Write a sequence for this structure.
């Protein structure tokens, strides 16, 4: 049968096979009785039902504004929303748009910040181009980079985030290998990193710009700052973004989302970049979808304009602070007596990063993961997914993949679920200590 | 200043520069007093304000369903929506899903059908791979193909759509040039093609499957059937899709959208494909945005489930039929006495394709376009944008770019606007005859 001839997919299709996120979701589906401390969903109870309703009703109380929401928008996103995003950034940064050196023209609205990350990768990275990331870092972005055929090189971190001495050492090594001209991007989740919960210290936020600029010897090295969690701050200092220190506005690209702070179902994120980067992203997005859902943008713009959004975020912080405390207390209760087990106390975000003794691996095929999922009925994200390995470097040149961590989230479970999940997880871990 | 070093964009970024759609939109913005017969917006008055309101209220009358719409969905799209899409296709095809050989697993929901077209291109086409298209065809898809570095080869059309003898001749020529193994896709807008308004005849719908299968000598040649306009049928026969004739389900990929028949602001489209193609698209979409707006999907699912959608489409057909008739009458009134001017009577869709004498060019830089936009204050889409040129073929081997056509749409203007626009356009054309 001629119609059974094989389909020849594109070369890059093979680079995005077997994504860990798909495996994780599959595990969730196949094991519905498992209590998930892995799923990246947000808290179900606090989803903004009433605010969304009020915003929708406001929008649809007027034929004109209803029809604008139902008609095509523009590729870059609704201009009124982009104006509100500018004010939103002014509030978050405590600086005027002028001081920040940005206008609406620097902003593009996307389907979650995920689409912004992906579009930026598409317009910037050729196969074998290099992106530097923290070890560990957001594993879904590692998938994006892998799907583009990029080289991902990990840089060591400590409790203040990516180490600047390690970053410089990595850049020096790449220069000595004749690869500095392939370094396009430094990716940083500067507030409450997924998965580690750590934030980049203020002095490093200033240093990293200087480093990127100093090492831009042949081409510009851009910093991609992912602030998905910035509004989910529970205690500790609120630090200005890396972007806010970028005095010329030419080095840092910032992306944020309303998925964590409002509703992931609306899928509204955005990014701020120099205009030539915006033009490139807009051209690619023009081909990809010529604009994200206009309706969502109008609902969110209404919630922002009416200040309902800000009331919601205040409440949400209290909700997540309680859930974070609950997870930390459960960690104390169940894990503190286990030798070699420790964890990060995050000041914000959705994750607790737990370290086990080096002998206990946590990966999908590890005995611990299997015991957790099949016997104790609890699931976590194996920490090793959050480390990149670069095939072009020797073992001694890169930050090694660490196999003894777990990413735990307090996002989706309620307080009882968190307590029960942590108890089950401790039982699983105990059988290996 | 080291931070002023040049940004090195990816190679493919240069392939999506200067898209005509951006130029057209820019013209619209810069000339706000211009009456547009170009803009691809849908009719503003008939946008489904009341149905969307009812659907939203229905969804938000229940905390559980409201929260589902506000939470993350899945990459492939809401399962209840995909079930409704299956029934929707059964209705449109007058065949059961079993007869069509498809289940929910063959369906992926996207941000308009545009994202489906783009994702399919990404997973299928390497630079220099070949896609065969009708001359003329949907120019935004030409932009997608160009952005992927693909070769686009035009096949001659007549009043029954793409000519099957020309298709075979093109395949034979490519085989003789050793390029048959690079042919991955045949793209067909089978109902009321944008821009020509023509439909592919039923016998050709069957033949094209046979041709694709016969020429799948080294790898499978897939047919991408874009049925964006299928529900906007005003008169003439309703012909089953190419997909409905694909007995093994291995040759045709079908995509549709609710942007034309319901609301582009919701940005909901979908595609139907063999499962291995779905897996590839899902992996890419997982990296790109891990799911289109969930809220839009839930609103649309409610409108479909309550049958409100179908009532709307019935009304919409009457609205557009009247507008089409209005444009055709205005064409008769203002153009019928102009020698060498003729146009297609479309049985559906949103476009009237008008041909001028060969000596009158219609492109952006042509005297006609400049006169139309600056003096008569009316805008159309130059037909030449809808023709591809392949650099690898000699002039004698390909269907030539025709420069004397205009795509006129009756979508966005009301009846007065259509009449006035056609009058202005005729004035512009007259000055060149």
């Amino acid at each position: 049968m001629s119609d059974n001839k094989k389909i020849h997919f594109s070369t890059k299709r093979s680079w995005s096979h077997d994504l860990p996120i798909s495996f994780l979701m599959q595990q969730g589906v196949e094991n519905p009785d498992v209590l998930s401390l892995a799923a990246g969903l947000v808290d179900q109870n606090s989803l903004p039902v009433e605010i969304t309703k009020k915003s929708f009703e406001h929008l649809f109380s007027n034929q004109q504004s209803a029809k604008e929401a139902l008609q095509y928008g523009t590729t870059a996103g609704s201009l009124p929303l982009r104006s509100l995003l500018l004010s939103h950034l002014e509030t978050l940064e405590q600086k005027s748009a002028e001081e920040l050196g940005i206008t609406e023209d620097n902003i593009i609205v996307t389907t979650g910040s995920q689409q912004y990350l992906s579009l930026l990768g598409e317009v910037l990275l050729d196969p074998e181009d290099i992106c530097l990331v923290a070890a560990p870092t957001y594993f879904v972005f590692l998938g994006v980079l892998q799907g583009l055929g990029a080289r991902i090189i990990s840089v060591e971190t400590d409790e203040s985030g990516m180490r600047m001495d390690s970053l410089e050492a990595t850049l020096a090594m790449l220069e000595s290998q004749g690869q500095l001209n392939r370094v396009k991007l430094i990716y940083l989740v500067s507030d409450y990193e997924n998965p580690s919960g750590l934030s980049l210290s203020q002095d490093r936020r200033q240093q990293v710009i200087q480093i990127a600029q100093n090492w831009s010897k042949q081409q510009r090295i851009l910093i991609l700052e992912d602030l998905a969690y910035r509004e989910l701050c529970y205690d500790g200092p609120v630090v200005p973004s890396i972007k806010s220190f970028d005095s010329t506005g030419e080095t840092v690209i910032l992306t944020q989302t309303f998925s964590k702070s409002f509703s992931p179902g609306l899928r509204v994120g955005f990014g701020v970049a120099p205009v030539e980067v915006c033009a490139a992203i807009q051209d690619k997005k023009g081909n990809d979808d010529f604009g994200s859902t206009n309706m969502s943008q109008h609902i969110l713009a209404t919630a922002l304009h009416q200040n309902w959004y800000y009331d919601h975020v205040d409440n949400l912080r209290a909700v997540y602070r309680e859930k974070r405390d609950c997870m930390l207390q459960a960690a104390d209760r169940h894990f503190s007596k286990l030798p070699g087990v420790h964890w990060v106390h995050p000041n914000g975000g959705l994750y607790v990063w737990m370290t086990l003794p080096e002998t206990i691996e946590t990966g999908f095929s590890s005995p611990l993961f299997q015991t957790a999922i099949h016997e104790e009925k609890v699931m976590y994200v194996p920490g090793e997914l959050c480390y990149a390995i670069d095939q072009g470097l020797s073992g001694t040149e890169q930050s090694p993949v660490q196999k003894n961590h777990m990413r735990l989230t307090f996002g989706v479970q309620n307080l009882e679920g968190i307590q029960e999940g942590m108890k089950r997880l401790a039982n699983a871990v105990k059988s290996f200590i």
Observations:
- Chain B touches chain A through 96 residues (CB under 8 Å).
- The radius of gyration of chain B is 22 Å.
